[in-house]
Amino acid sequence: MNIRITNKIRTTCVNKLTIPLFLCAITMIIFILCPFIEVFHPVTINDIHKVTSENDFVKVKSTELYYTGYNLEKAGGALYGYYYSIKDGKSVFAIIPIDGVPQKIIKNYEFKAKVMKPNHAFKKMLDSYMNDLNWNTDALSHINANFVLSNADYHPLFYIILLWIVLVIFLISIKKTISYLLAIANPYIYPVCTFIGKKEQKYLIDEAQYELDSENYIQINDMYITENYFIDLGKTKVSIIPLDEIIWCYRMGEISLNPKDTAPEFSICFMILSGSVITAKHKSSDEALELINAIRATGYEIIIGHSESKQREAKRIVADYKEYERQEEEDKD
Hints:
Largest sheet: 5 strands, mixed, barrel
Helix content: 40-55%
Order of helices and strands: HHHEEEEEHHEHHEEEEEEEHEH
Number of strands: 14
Distance between the termini: 49 Å
Number of helices: 9
């Protein structure tokens, strides 16, 4: 059977491109649809009566605002007052924050607001206010603007948080997309082994490929154990671990969030000399047990199975190895 690690890397990267490309598309759509610029830099209008329903977010100034006597309490206890401005027989309502006792008349007031259609709360307030004045609501509609300037619905903090979330997702997706495309073009830069340098990647892949070509290996579905390497050609990841780097091997059960999954899945964990733990995920119980037995059958001194005593022994080996490396460095100096 002709097994090519580089071809498997390319296939894996092609399959994994779907998610970052989808996220890139979604975030770009959010960038286009969300009015980030309008929120952070609202249109400045010096006369509240020059605002139109075509505006979205504005920084507006009014010479006089009159209090209706009605308030709006938002979540968190923030209190806003319903005010209005009249000029040349036309009125505009605004919802602005109040602190303490509301002022009956506010002069030369500047505020930022979202230009929005009258909602249920506003219409209910307006009906009550018209009843207080013995006015006709329908008659008012002829002179009143068909929008409300609401500072209560102007939430720049929400858009700041949303922008940062979208930016982070977009940048991570772009990075993933580029890394997958580069790995498709040159499989040797794919991180098959995360604890070695990029320059050693090609040597590691070529050596593992040479041992696979010899057909002297143990195969457990997509996993292979050759004379010197553990090779996992999984659906979502390609890993190559030199057997002489492994000091401890054990399996751990995985928690599935999918209620349809009935068969348990396991991760095979490999602690290496540096102390890092590399995992081969999404393995069945039979695969995990067979792999553990195959690792046990190699000629390498690898601690098999999980227990507190074995964990302590593995940590001791790591500590001894690091001390050995430190002394080696001192001797070189």
